[in-house]
Task: inverse folding
């Protein structure tokens, strides 16, 4: 299992399958300022939409489009839910430590739950996994509607939870319906926010003698965008490497086309990077003035 604690921002390869998750992390025995005992992260497609921890004691929206949704009463309610989880997890981790005969030391208890939904097939799947010290502890088999555990120490918990049929039924409802509805609702909020964002196009070269030039388009939405290199007005695809479509932290897209070419070659000929998005064309002529040196992109 090994849940990662992701406080960092990442760019991901775009896919039609969407995921909505909540991750709670409880750390026991680590009294270091700056590392919270409890944290909660909600993500949509791997990107944080909100964050809470026991030091900040406040729910923080991580995306512009969630700010309005998460204001007023809902902000209060969502903060309170996390405060309650913080309290129970503090007790839970001591129970887990007892099960594993750990009386001291640094230990973690994590729960990750949520659902996946495929835009194309409409198929969805819920999940609810609990981990202790990075290993599987207990997980819900949503189809069979029962909790399973790969370890002896998890048996007390699975037996207790599997005996509560009413609660299991509620969970089934949640993972099959509500969770997917929320996921779709958040996708809709994100889409409305992103509707038609124009790309920002730039030419990048590591240094003036480098034989690699990147045409970099970022911040656009929706995802349909083409990048073409032109040599003296003609399509040029020799030594061109079109990169994968990636997604930025804010849900906008990013695409790069790499041109392998000697500086003398583009000084003698006119090379242009042509980007098309939503019926508009953006041109960048390859000249020294247009190039931004930026080593961080190489
Ligand atoms: C955590 O505590 C709650 C409340 O006491 C309890 O219902 C739940 O079973 C506990 N979870 C684990 C993993 O023991
Ligand atoms: C280089 O790229 C980084 C990250 O995209 C950006 O913050 C920085 O301002 C850029 N520097 C230049 C000189 O363009």
Result:
């Amino acid at each position: 299992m090994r849940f990662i604690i992701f406080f960092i921002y990442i760019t991901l390869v775009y896919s039609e399958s969407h995921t909505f998750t909540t991750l709670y992390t409880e750390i026991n025995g680590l009294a270091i300022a700056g590392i919270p005992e409890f944290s909660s992260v909600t993500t949509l497609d791997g990107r944080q939409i909100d964050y809470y921890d026991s030091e900040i004691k406040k729910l923080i929206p991580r995306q512009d489009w969630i700010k309005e949704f998460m204001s007023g009463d809902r902000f209060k309610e969502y903060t309170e839910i996390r405060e309650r989880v913080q309290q129970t997890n503090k007790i839970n981790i001591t129970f887990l430590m007892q099960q594993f005969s750990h009386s001291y030391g640094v230990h973690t208890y994590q729960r990750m739950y949520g659902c996946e939904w495929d835009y194309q097939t409409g198929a969805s799947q819920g999940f609810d996994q609990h981990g202790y010290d990075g290993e599987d502890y207990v997980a819900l088999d949503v189809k069979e509607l029962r909790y399973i555990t790969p370890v002896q120490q998890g048996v007390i918990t699975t037996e207790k939870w599997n005996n509560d049929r009413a609660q299991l039924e509620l969970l089934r409802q949640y993972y099959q319906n509500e969770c997917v509805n929320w996921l779709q609702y958040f996708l809709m909020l994100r889409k409305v926010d992103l509707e038609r964002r124009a790309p920002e196009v730039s030419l990048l070269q590591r240094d003036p003698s480098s034989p690699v030039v990147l045409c970099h388009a970022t911040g656009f939405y929706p995802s349909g965008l083409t990048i073409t290199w032109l040599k003296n007005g003609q399509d040029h695809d020799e030594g061109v490497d079109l990169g994968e479509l990636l997604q930025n932290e804010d849900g906008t897209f990013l695409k790069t086309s790499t041109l392998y070419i000697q500086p003398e070659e583009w000084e003698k000929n006119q090379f242009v990077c042509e980007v098309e998005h939503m019926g508009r064309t953006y041109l960048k002529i390859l000249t020294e003035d247009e190039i931004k040196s930026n080593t961080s992109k190489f």
Notes: The radius of gyration is 24 Å. The chain has a mean pLDDT of 91.
